[in-house]
Design a protein that fits this description.
Number of helices: 31
Radius of gyration: 28 Å
Largest sheet: none
Structural class: mainly alpha
Helix content: 55-70%
Shape: globular
Distance between the termini: 47 Å
Strand content: under 5%
């Protein structure tokens, strides 16, 4: 690219960033206009439009590394890995040390069973940056494929610094060493991959259990026992397929990298790694699910459904993927399509409750509480024996009953949910708050909320409940401390702001109280709360002895976050 063109690109981007010109005005058919159109589409999440614009610029200026790299990334984000690999060959002619292009070319060779070509390509990759973790792991799988791993691979040989990634690195060492026949080393790696046996990464635990069942290990026995004690409903049966070939192992490495990126909120990079995992291993159901989740975070719902659709009916994860698709239809404004799909799934699998539970979740989110109760009740009727994992269904139905004004039914469901999952913070909070609002079982209600806030000290709704418990007991100073924290944690919630206003009023801070009530109104509260706020702004609060009940916590903020697909 000519220097003048580079300057023009930079100047144009700078001018649009400060509003001097518009994207439409700059996209005038010139090379710089096409570049800017590509940037605008890229920044706005329009993957296909970004690719179209960047392709035009790359064709006119094929030696521009910035454009080529952006085009390559967008192609990978789209899932067009073959074109990205073709582009990788061109990029390497410009920059022989382009890490992503080297990886793509190595993956092409691995997929085509050319492990020698892949090894040669990876030898040229720098270990700087993100290559630190994936490079030695992929290289090790190539060595296993060529029977070149003469001794167990150790953590120290992977990289100078794996730091917080040590458990994941040990997980991959376990897979590599197990496949190479070093079972004792693999057992120790698996042990070091599990930081907390009571709450382990599900995929790591599945493959650990598979390894333990096949090989046994006194090193792993305490880990397995601790896991089963905390997960009595789980069995040793793993739905994850064995990882035995170089392609399996490399795809697993890329899947892990995608998970790391998702956890770090680097979502576009996560999607790229997951696309590469599926390129190497097209039937990788777990990667397809994770890719769909990444696209959901990017609000690319159509792309997400394409990813979920890659999970075939033969996979144990098929039903889960289909539920994700239904939920995505709702996100796309197609609630009726979502409900029709879920009804069809429920009819096809009369013994399965998941489709009906998901239907209930969607109806509840849309405030169709009576229909949601019906869906949840039908789902519960399909469950022969309620286990601890079913507490969210009872919790959700109880919340719907409460919204419908049937507190007796709500109370029964919430108490049964606690039988299934004692000390569950969401249930403790909802039931305790409900009792407080009705001036019932106040000592038990406060104890429940104290237990909940101890378990989740940064949960805004639970902190708000603790503040409200203190408020109702007359401890306005203590209440204000909790309620101010709740507003900090959830500044846009009308109920939390209303409660803080009430506490301020009781302390005599009437100007601050009115400010909080006005702030609460600005967040579009429900009609009942809005009427109360207008009255308080006009009349203030009555004496404490005439206080009415509180508004129950919001049942529409997805209390089933652990259970909803």
């Amino acid at each position: 690219m000519k220097i003048k063109a580079k300057i023009y690109y930079s100047l144009t981007v700078a001018l649009i960033s400060i509003g001097v010109i518009t994207a439409a005005g700059a996209a005038d058919g010139t090379l710089a206009g096409s570049y800017l159109a590509g940037q605008f589409a890229r920044n706005s999440g329009d993957i296909d439009a970004a690719i179209a614009s960047l392709r035009r610029v790359h064709q006119d200026d094929p030696e521009n590394m910035e454009v080529a790299s952006q085009l390559q990334g967008m192609l990978l984000l789209q899932g067009n890995v073959d074109e990205a690999i073709t582009l990788a060959s061109d990029i390497r002619q410009i920059d022989e040390r382009d890490q992503l292009s080297d990886l793509l070319l190595a993956l092409r060779d691995i997929k085509n069973h050319n492990v020698d070509g892949a090894a040669a390509m990876l030898d040229s990759v720098s270990e700087a940056g993100s290559a630190q973790l994936w490079l030695p792991l992929i290289s090790a799988w190539i060595d296993v494929s060529n029977n070149k791993l003469a001794k167990p691979l150790t953590l120290e040989e992977l990289s100078a610094d794996v730091s917080r990634a040590a458990p994941l690195a040990n997980y991959h060492l376990a897979l590599i060493n197990a496949q190479a026949g070093f079972t004792d080393a693999a057992a120790l790696n698996f042990k070091n991959a599990i930081e907390d046996p009571k709450n382990p990464p599900s995929r790591v635990m599945e493959l650990l259990l598979r390894f333990y069942k096949q090989n046994g290990s006194t090193v792993l026995t305490p880990v397995v026992n601790a896991y089963h004690e905390s997960h009595p409903d789980d069995t040793d049966e793993s739905v994850a397929p064995s990882i035995v070939t170089a392609q399996d192992g490399v795809a697993e490495v890329l899947y892990t990298m995608g998970g790391i990126m998702l956890g770090a909120d680097v979502t576009s990079d996560a999607a790229i790694y997951l696309q590469l995992a599926l390129y190497v291993k097209p039937d990788f159901a777990e990667a397809a699910l994770a890719l769909g989740d990444a696209y959901v975070q990017l609000q690319q719902y159509a792309h997400a459904n394409d990813a979920y659709a890659r999970v075939t009916p033969a996979s144990p994860l098929y039903i889960r993927a289909q539920l994700h698709i239904a939920v995505n239809f709702d996100r796309m404004g197609k609630l009726n399509d979502a409900l029709s799909m879920l009804d069809k799934m429920a009819k096809q699998s009369p013994d399965d409750a998941d489709a009906l539970i998901t239907k209930g979740d969607l109806l509840r989110i849309h405030s169709r509480y009576r229909d949601a109760v019906d869906a949840y009740s039908k789902a519960l009727g399909r469950i022969p024996e309620l286990k601890s994992s079913h507490w969210p269904v009872l919790f959700a139905r109880g919340a719907c009953f409460e919204r419908l004004g049937n507190w007796a039914a709500a109370e029964r469901d919430l108490q049964q949910a606690l039988v299934l999952k004692p000390d569950q913070p969401d249930v403790l909070n909802y039931l305790g708050y409900g009792w407080m609002a009705r001036n019932e079982n106040l000592a038990d209600a406060r104890a429940m909320i104290e237990k909940a806030v101890k378990a989740r000290p940064d949960d805004a709704e639970i902190v708000d409940s603790m503040g409200w418990a203190l408020y109702l007991s007359g401890d306005y100073e203590g209440a204000t401390e909790y309620l101010e924290k709740a507003v900090e944690l959830l500044p846009g919630d009308p109920t939390v702001n209303d409660h803080l206003g009430d506490a301020y009023w009781r302390l005599g801070h009437k100007t601050e109280a009115r400010y909080q009530w006005e702030r609460s109104l600005s967040f579009s509260p429900e009609a009942k709360l809005a009427d109360s706020l207008h009255h308080k702004l006009k009349e203030g609060l009555p004496p404490p002895t005439t206080l009415a009940g509180a508004v129950p916590p919001d049942a529409d903020t997805n209390p089933l976050s652990d259970a909803t697909p």
